[in-house]
Amino acid sequence: MTAAPSPRTRARRLHHKAAYDRATIDAILDAMPVAHVGYILEGAPVVTPTLQWRTGDRIFWHGSSASRMQKTATGAPVCVTVTLTDAMVLARSGLEHSVNYRSVMVFGTAVEVTGAAAKTAALKAMMDRMFPGRWESLRPMTAQELKATRILSLPLTEASAKIGAGMPTDPPEDLSWPVWAGVLPIRFAMGDPISAPGVDLAVPPHAAAYRFGHPAQ
Prior knowledge:
It is a single chain. This protein has 217 residues and is α+β, with helices and mostly antiparallel strands. The protein has a single domain (15-169, 201-208), classed as Electron Transport, Fmn-binding Protein, Chain A (Pnp Oxidase, Chain A). The chain has helices at residues 22-31, 68-73, 116-130, 143-147, 205-208; strands spanning 18-19, 34-41, 44-55, 58-64, 77-90, 98-109, 111-113, 149-155, 159-164, 182-185. Strands 1, 2, 3, 4, 5, 6, 7, 8, 9 and 10 form a 10-stranded antiparallel beta sheet that branches. A hairpin with a 2-residue loop joins β2 (34-41) and β3 (44-55). The two termini are 21 Å apart.
């Protein structure tokens, strides 16, 4: 499904890099759990990093019920940004240096998830998105833990993606300039799992196979 861009999501520059279809947007959101939430706190802009996950047509993020971000963003307009950095692009001039990236911006009013059942389902969806099958093996959450957790969500009705890829775009007159140009690929590499002290159990497949920066399988 491709949504018509809103005045806030329509790309003003480099229109060819913009994408408004859900397949592209979903793939980026599913590949990168780290998000930055922008909101207004006491009249000033604040951007806070957090983890996000997508379930269907909405994205979610959670934090402490006492968190100033969670309290301030509830029922307020926010902008959530997710970015993957794929390469540094070195050109023949300083102006043409760039970055290959995939990013999504989502605008809307943050809605709080309420009720123990709904909050539990949302947290299970987060775990299933990142570590499929792990939720069932965990110690169940207590009522106090749920009370201390605030979950917010946004619909994906006002979202857009922007993607930069490829080699440097030097103008023809610069192509003979004697300096190296090209791309420096960036790869997320997961290290070997390290068991917590006192754990004498095999590393589960959902931990051993996790790959940060790639779409969930």
